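=== Structure Prediction Worksheet ===
Name of assembly: unnamed complex
Input type: mixed (protein and possibly other molecules)
Chain count: two
Listed entries:
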Amino acid sequence: EAGVAQSPRYKIIEKRQSVAFWCNPISGHATLYWYQQILGQGPKLLIQFQNNGVVDDSQLPKDRFSAERLKGVDSTLKIQPAKLEDSAVYLCASSRQGVLQETQYFGPGTRLLVL
Amino acid sequence: GENVEQHPSTLSVQEGDSAVIKCTYSDSASNYFPWYKQELGKGPQLIIDIRSNVGEKKDQRIAVTLNKTAKHFSLHITETQPEDSAVYFCAAELQGGSEKLVFGKGTKLTVNP
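=== Predicted Assembly ===
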């Protein structure tokens, strides 16, 4: 079974520029998560999708971050414009149904550096 | 909301020794507590989890204990090996609406050969 795929693996941009990350979850997984992991901290949930609908985006800075999962499979996360404090690893995870006590499988992440 | 505290932030042990990492949580309704291992340049990988209807779970050299009354849970690694070196994260599932995981800040474990 192929794991969660993410691209790019690394990205360096200047502040005020825009950037987009892509995620392909495990085949058949209905639930997709985007996390932000700042250096030295645990992952923090940004947004959770169930199929192509948003379940939770309470911690997504909506003035600059957006995400979509149009066909209920792949997802993109965009930052526009980027700030220095957005430097972090952006992790995508998926689970089968997004129900209680279900395992989340993480991708390798995209490491973003904002200069 | 849920808050998860994890200690220690760094832990260094000799190969063969045991390692213990402790976490506390604030939401008494939480019922699911996974532990993830993150190696350099990789995403977190689930290594063991425990649900609130049990107090202890073991998988080879790894065990997790849960004390719901005190709202804390611990990861125990016995007979540590250099390949156990990584950052370990505990998490608690926040209930109500979305089944969201709240992570601790992580413990960097170094196993010295």
